[in-house]
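yo, Arginine exporter protein argO is done. seq:
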Amino acid sequence: MYTLASLPALFTAWASGTATGLGLFAVVGAQSAFILRQGLMRAHLLSILALCAAIDAVFIFASVWGLQAVASWFPWLTRAILWFGVAFLSWYAVQSARRALWARGGLQAAQHAVPSRRAALLGAAGFTLLNPHFWLDIMVVGSLAHGFDDARLAFAAGAVTASVLWLAVLGIGSRLFAPRFADPRAWRVLDGTIAIVMAALAIRLACNGLA
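structure:
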């Protein structure tokens, strides 16, 4: 049971969790690139952000409650996720490269190619759950949270706060940059950049898996 006397410790744990979460999550990786592109297309952005925030929250708290033990019981699970991630990122890199090389039209054309809500949500879930870096970040948060003893859930809440803040930045940023993507060349640059990022991540994961 928390009391007024425990509030400073809870706030410290929450602030530490927020800072840690921002340090871990605030990077432009596979999930971030996917969200930015969907936001620029105005394709189910709020649903995607809500799903990503919910997944982050569930697994952050699960890590504090014992997800690390599950990973130690099933060591093969980490490797399976890694290779699924390599395949998924490689496929998306190829799709992005194809759009960069052969797609025509700007923002209006992209909006005509908007995927269904189900497809967009499946993509968001895939970029989150099939990303080994996501699991590594979650495990780090869980490990650090236990250093705060009774305030560990406050630390987890701080990490969730960081996740929501970063997702909000991605969502708002994609809307602010949308007018620039009326030019077809901007889409080709974006898709080319995404293809490079995805391919680099896939190669890096594959090297880690073979090491």
